[in-house]
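Lab notebook, page 48
Experiment: co-folding of the full assembly
Goal: obtain a model of how the components sit together before planning crosslinking
Operator: M.T.
Materials (sequences as entered):
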Amino acid sequence: MTGTEAGSYLDSLIRVQAQPPAAHSSPAWLKQLRARALERVGALTVPTTRDEDWRFTDLSPLTRLSWHPVQGAPQLASADLERLSLPEAAARLVFVDGRYAAQHSFNHSGLTVANLPAGMAEHGASVEAHLGRHARFEQDAFTAVNTAFLHDGALIVVARDAVLEAPVQVLCISTQKETASYPRCLVIAQPGSRLTIIEEFAALHQGACFTNAVTEMALADNARVNHVRVQRDSEAAFHIGNCAVSLAHASRYHAVGIAFGARLSRYNLNVLLAEEGAECAIDGLALIGGRQLADSHTLIDHAKPHGLSRQLHKCIVDGSAHSVFNGKIMVRPGAQRTDSSQSSRNLLLSGKARVDTKPQLEIFADDVKCAHGATVGQLDAEEVFYLRSRGLSDAAARMLLTYAFGAEVIGRIGVASLRRRLERAVQAQTSRAA
Amino acid sequence: MIYQDSRTLLAVRDLRATVNGTEILKGIDLSVRSGEVHAIMGPNGSGKSTFAKVLAGHPAYAVSGGEVSFDGGNLFELEPETRSRRGMFLGFQYPIEIPGVANSQFLRLAYNTLQAERGKEELDPLEFDDFVREKMKLLEMNPDFLDRSVNEGFSGGEKKRNEILQMALLEPKLAILDETDSGLDIDALRIVANGVNHLATRDNAIILVTHYQRLLNYIKPDFVHVMDAGRIVKTGGSELALELEARGYDWVSAEFIASGTPKAEVGA
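Observation: model returned without errors.
Model output:
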């Protein structure tokens, strides 16, 4: 694939996506943001496996597909919505094929949880200050395309010292095959506030589709955000997600990312510990089989002293699937007393499964504590025997151990109904594997 | 206890087994009848634990000769899980930790698997909770251990109590307890031994594999067997354990070699 062809591929994405008429009434700064992003789309190309960051993830199958415009009104059947709903949710925003579905959304949270165009009326200045500022599109083709089409999106503003215990759910559902959607989410957590947000990407079809999602989160001083991201796209889907998080003084960000779906998924999570005393915990689980590829690239950027980061990334890989993890920890000059640990643990369930895992530490301060480790292995024969000696069949023993491997990450999700739903999904998938 | 009307639960004849091509068990003969408690003692490396694992079906060991009948059937035709479901239980020397699986979930799964096998009713989580808490009292276990991951972060004594708890739930016909006393302080030893004594009936049998005599102060064996270099070299009553405690193991091996037993191939 040459750069020229790649460029034309991005152009073709642009052509198929028409801006909604309402985009013309956007504020001037947003029009300018889109225009700048569109300009970058023209200059950037789709990355190839010659790019170090995309070494294992070949996007050429994506560029061979063509997409249709989304048809009709955004609409879900109530049974489908019911299946994905969380009883605990204080608010829910639903996007169907990238478009806001007001009739499926609700907000009892007392906070701003709204579609972007509506929410901007009240929070114009702070949206302007954050939107497109954290997820940089200058060098990233997919973020640029998403930003060029920026219209509908989730906007969550948690007011100063507001504490919302119940989660806010953002559901992005693909209902139409061969379409591309560009989910967007912006979270602004003001000083001292607390929020749990569940972002979930799912498909109601088994066809190809392309999800290109961008999420930005700005945590002000002492804010706390729990962020759960569940990717369960169709098995033929392409999913590219970018999430950029900025942490101010003593703020805390906890992420749990679960990836089950998609033929090819790539998630880039960049967390900037921008001020002193910021903390983050990043947990990830990929559970894939068949010919799936799940690629997770994370960057934890310690820019200031006394930052703390904890990361656990797990992959369960079956069939001839391939998981990729690149975990970069950056400790910038002056970011003294940084305390960072990273663990990548991988379970191979078949001889053809493949894992590429790479911790990448770049440390430019001398008074820091950084630990990392990676393991790749199969189920432990002693553990399997222990369970069989208690009457469990070989298959049941393997299933339980595989389930347990994933449950460690799922157990870190603070929303009980989602945890149960994901545990069932892991059980279903592991029993299929066993 | 030795009963007149007992039946043979385990009959081992000339059992040989290898690991990675090396013969570890070199012809074991043993008969265990219902109601009996047997102790298998011997120095480190004598093959005691291997014998226990071979009986339970550990995949690392290959049976290279001999026969074992368990409760009237050929043991070696049974998968490890089938041996368990037919009433064999191995209490592990080093119980495995399983992070991510709640102990209660594991115990209930094992219990219900057995109930299904026996055509009996399975218990739902609430029913099982009541049932297992009752059993835990026997071992003076804190119910908190139900919510923790299987054996994860348990002390040595807690792990062994958890093993005996599984024995209490599964009510095996033959329990083989491999070094159950190792790593136990005196209180834990007493509790575990009380649990085992409580579970011993005239219908089941227990094989204690142990290096030291002290467990036998609490659980009185009907037979004591001494293993050396992959064979049982001496069998006696409970008094033999005391003699071993006083004199060590060397004299037994020496006596065995001197006796010129046909199966002795020491040095071969």
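Interpretation: The longest helix of chain B spans residues 103-117.
Next step: discuss with group before ordering constructs.
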